Amino acid sequence: LAKTTQPISMDSYEGQEVNITCSHNNIATNDYITWYQQFPSQGPRFIIQGYKTKVTNEVASLFIPADRKSSTLSLPRVSLSDTAVYYCLSNKESPGGSYIPTFGRGTSLIVHP
Amino acid sequence: DAGVTQSPTHLIKTRGQQVTLRCSPKSGHDTVSWYQQALGQGPQFIFQYYEEEERQRGNFPDRFSGHQFPNYSSELNVNALLLGDSALYLCASSLEVGLNTEAFFGQGTRLTVV
What we know:
Structural class of chain B: mainly beta
Shape of chain A: globular
Helix content of chain A: under 10%
CATH architecture of chain A: Sandwich
CATH class of chain B: Mainly Beta
Shape of chain B: globular
CATH superfamily of chain B: Immunoglobulins
Number of helices of chain A: 0
Strand content of chain B: over 45%
CATH superfamily of chain A: Immunoglobulins
Order of helices and strands of chain A: EEEEEEEEEEE
Radius of gyration of chain B: 13 Å
CATH class of chain A: Mainly Beta
CATH architecture of chain B: Sandwich
Number of domains of chain B: 1
Number of helices of chain B: 0
Oligomer: heterodimer
CATH topology of chain A: Immunoglobulin-like
Number of strands of chain B: 11
Distance between the termini of chain A: 40 Å
Distance between the termini of chain B: 37 Å
Number of domains of chain A: 1
C-alpha cells in the first residue's frame, strides 16, 4: 500500500521559517496534496493545497517537485501560535481498489520563544 | 455562519453497546465525511456521504454505518463497540463530492469505550 510519511516532530523559534516535508509515493496522477493544521481538542484546519510546482497563500507556501512524490509545507516567520500538529493529505488506493483520503501521521511543531 | 457542529462532544459507552454520533455541515455544504482519530495518530477516513448515499468508504468494518439526511446533516453509527473504537470522531463537510475538495472539520466527538 502507498504510504504518506512525515517527520514526527520539529522544533523552531519565533521568527524562523519552518519547512515540513511529506513523502507520498504512488500518488495518483490527478491527485492534489493538501496540508492541515490541528490544535489540541480541535478538528484539523485547511492550510493549503497544490498539484505541482509552488502555491502560496497568506499563511504558507507549498512546494511540489516535478515527480510529485513529496511536498514541502513552508511556514514563514513562525510564532508561538503556530505550535500545532501539521498533516499532509493525499488520496491513496485502499485495499478495495478505490482511492480514499489518507492523512499522514502528522508532524508536531513546537515553536519556542 | 455556523461551521461544522458535532454532538455530543464527549461520550462514554460500554463494550458491546451501540452509539450514534451527529454532524451538521457548514452552511451551503452538501457532502459529509467521517474520520476516526486515535490518540497520536492522523485521522482515518471512514466514509463520505453525498446526496444521502455513501460514496466512498475506508477500511472500516460493517459495524460502522452512516446516514445522510435531506438537510445534509449526517449520523455515524457504530455497533458492538470494542475498546479499540475509543477515539476522536471527526466530521468534515465540503461543497462538493470528491477527493480534492477543501474540507471543514468539526471539533469532534470524543468516544471512550470501557
